[in-house]
Amino acid sequence: MISLVPDVKNYQKSFFNQKLFIIVLLLSVGVTLLSSCSPNKMEKCKLIEVEPREVELDIKDTDIEGWELEVLCGDQLWDIPWSEINRHFKIDLKKYYSKNPQAAQRQLQRLEQRLVFYKQDNKRGNILYGSLDSNPELVGVKAKKDD
Predict the structure, then answer these.
(1) Residue 130 lies in a domain
(2) Which residues are CB-contacts of 147 (< 8 A; sequence separation ≥ 6)?
(3) How confident is the model over 76-87, as pLDDT tens digits?
(4) Which end of the chain has fewer CB atoms surrounding its CB within 10 Å, N or C?
(5) Residues 33, 53: one domain?
(6) What is the share, in percent, of the chain residues with pLDDT greater than 70?
(7) How far apart are the first and last CA of the chain?
(8) Whether 110 and 138 share a structural domain
(9) pLDDT score of 134 more than 70
(10) Range 58-64 contact pairs with CB under 8 angstroms and sequence separation of 24 or more
(11) How sure is the predictor about 2, in pLDDT bands with cuts at 50, 70 and 90?
C-alpha cells in the first residue's frame, strides 16, 4: 500500500546529511584559503661561495670553521657544512673540489637546484633539499646563520 504521508525519518536523515556536507565543504574551503594566505613561503636558495677551512681570530673570540657552502636563502646568509652535503648527497665534495673543480661545480649546481628555504611566520627558517632520487620529499639540512 502506498502511503501519502511523507517518511519523516528519511527526510530528517537527508536534511542532516545535506547540512553536514555543507559544513564540511565550508570548513575545507576555509582551511584551504587560510593556508594559501599564510606568511609561510618557500624560496629558492642561491649558492654564493665555497668556503675552505678557515680560522678567524678576534679579540674576544676564535672561530675555527671547516669547509662550508655559503648560500643565500631569502634575505639571510647561511653556512652548510660539508658533512651535511656528504651525508645527504653521498659525495665528498672536498675531494672533488681539489682534484676536479669542473666536476665539483656541476655537482654544486645540481645541489643548488634542490635547495629551498622555508620561512615560518617571519621568525626563523629551515633549509630543505629535494632528494636526488624520484622521491618528492623535502628533508632538512643542518645549517647555521653566517656570521
Answers:
(1) yes
(2) 63
(3) 888 888 888 777
(4) N
(5) no
(6) 54
(7) 87
(8) yes
(9) no
(10) 63/147
(11) low
User: Are both 69 and 137 inside the same structural domain?
Assistant: yes
- Tell me how many domains the chain contains: 2
Same domain, 75 and 122: yes
Specify whether the CB–CB gap between 93 and 52 falls below 8 A: no
Residue whose C-alpha cell reads 629551498 in the numeric block: 116
SS3 category, 54: strand
Residue identified by cell 653521498 is 90
Say whether pTM exceeds 0.70. no
Q: Residue written as cell 630543505?
A: 128
Which CB contacts under 8 angstroms, 24+ apart, belong to 64-69?
Answer: 67/93, 67/94, 69/108, 69/111
CA separation, residue 1 to residues 6, 8, 55 (Å): 14, 17, 96
Residue type, 40: N
